[in-house]
Every structure is written in C-alpha cells, then in structure tokens.
Amino acid sequence: LTRAAVLLVGTAALTASLSAQARELSVSTVLPDAFPWGQAAEKWAELIEERSDGRLTLRVYPNSQLVSGDQTREFSAMRSGLIDAAVGSTINWSPQVPELNLFSLPFLMPDEAAVDAVTGGEAGEMVFEAIESRGVIPLAWGENGFRQLSNSQGPVSEPEDLEGLKIRVVGSPLFQDTFSALDADPTQMSWADAKPALTTGAVDGQENPLSVFDVARIDQVGQEYLTLWNYMNDPLVFAVNQNVWQTLDEVDRELLRETAIEAGKWEIAMTREQESERLASIQARGVTVTELTDEQHQAFVEATQSVYEKWVPRIGEDLVEAARSAIDAR
Ligand code: X2X
C-alpha cells in the first residue's frame, strides 16, 4: 500500500465510525411544549427519532435556557456553535439579521394568506439567504402567530388609547419605534421578565399571539383588555448551525430539512385551527376583547408610517418590495 492509500483507508474508516455514532443536537426554543412553538420543536425531534435509525437525536432546551433567558442572544449562540439548532422567532433573531424585521413592520401582513405568500415565495427565499449569509442554515418555517395587544388599564380601539401606557416589548428596536409612534411608553425585556413585570404592574401591557396569552394565562396577571389588531405576524424559523450542517452527510441533511418542513407545516396548521377556540376561552375568562373597525385600523396604520420610513432602508427596499408584490398577488 502506498502512503496515500493508507491515508485514504484511514479517513474512510474514521468517517464510517463517525457516522455510525449517534449524534445529539441541541435545539433551543423560547417557549416550552405547553405552547405550539415548543410543540413544533418536539415534533421535529419525534420525526427525527422515527426516521434517523438512531443516527440523530434532537434534544429540545426550552425557556431560552441555553442563553440564560436572553432570547435575543439565541441567534448569536447558534452561529457560534454554543447551540446546534433552534426553532426561533424572527423577532428574537432580528438584532443579528436586520432583514427579519420585515415581519415586524406594522400592519404589513393583513392575513394568513399574506404570510404564506411571503414565506413561501421570493421574499421568503431572500430572508433565508439573509440568515444563511450570517452563518446559520435555515430549513423551514413555523408560526408563533399574529400578535395582539393586551393591557390592564382599559379598552384600546384607537392610537390615543395607548397614550402613556407602559408596554413590554421584545427584541428589535423596531418595537420601540412602533410603540413610541403610538405615544405609548415601550420597554424592552425578555419573556422571562415579562410575566413578573405584568404581575407587579411595572408594565401596563404586552403583545403576543393568542396562544401565548391563553397558555400563559396572561389574564391572571391583570391583563383584562385585549385588542385584536393583527399588527404583525411572528413566524418561526427552524435552523441549524453551519458547522454542524457541514459535518452531516447528504442523507441526514435531507432528513433534517424534510422533518423540519413537516413539523413546521403541522404546527402552523394547528396554531391557526386553535385560534377561535383560544379566543373563546380567553373571553370566557372575562377578558374584554376589542375588534377594530376599518376606520380604527386605518388610524393605527397611519400613526405608524414613520416606522416604514426608518426601517425599510435597513430591511432592504428589494425585500420589502418582494413581500408587497407577494401580498398583492395572494
Ligand atoms: O417574548 C415573546 O413575547 C415571545 C415569547 O413571543 C417571543 O419570543 C417572540
């Protein structure tokens, strides 16, 4: 045997033994499996368990525990390899991937069909390229849902009603701008800090999808007023660290992608199907629910235009344009 041949045989044996070994990947989420978001990650793990013949295991770590509760560090932790994978919110990743602020532009997405047109089309591909260019491999979409506004002080049906209300907001500075444009008093904090702040009255309100309001029993911490304003949809992205991805063979890459897509579709359908039931149970617990007339909706749209002026250039004119055409053509 020549020296090259010995080397080749050695490498092949090493590769074979590596791939024969079971591999465990950590998957970070903010919300645990009492919520659709956590269930999305669990579903992904289940499908991998069923189909990988023991080669791969996904171990889900909820409550942002791998980043000590600081959900806005999840993307950086995944990029650096501290976390292998995540099912994460575009809001929480937007400090590192500015294009993800697309989804937080107030009142851009009128309905679920608009969300699907954006994520499933050219705009969605552009967003995935933006994620990949920052060192993380995006695989599939999920959904936290349309975010609705709640508070402890009174019904909100027009921008004036928000004046001076302290609102807990997430992630990107875009949220500070949206709520400042509405003359509210936004304060940024993690989900881990949000419920205590609502409990003590340190903040008057918050915004989250109905599933989060319902499962976390936000009404029990004084949030008696809920406004259905659909001001933004919060998609989730299934993703894997780039170095981890490079060590996987084609079969396992395809498996991770196909199971992420399946888990995402399953979770999106479930989240949407449960919406009306969730609203009914929130109402049954005594929460006052406000729906906006077209005129009231329009007042919020106009009051938040400054957010577009500042943020469209940061997100990218092309991306916003692609999203708008997809929405118009839905
Ligand atoms: O922190 C939130 O509000 C949550 C749970 O919805 C996100 O992580 C975006």
Automatic annotation (TrEMBL):
The keyword Transport applies. This is C4-dicarboxylate ABC transporter. One of its GO terms (cellular component) is outer membrane-bounded periplasmic space. NCBIfam families: dctP, TRAP_S1. One of its GO terms (biological process) is transmembrane transport. The keyword Signal applies. Pfam families: DctP. Residues 1-22 form the signal peptide. Keywords: Signal, Transport.
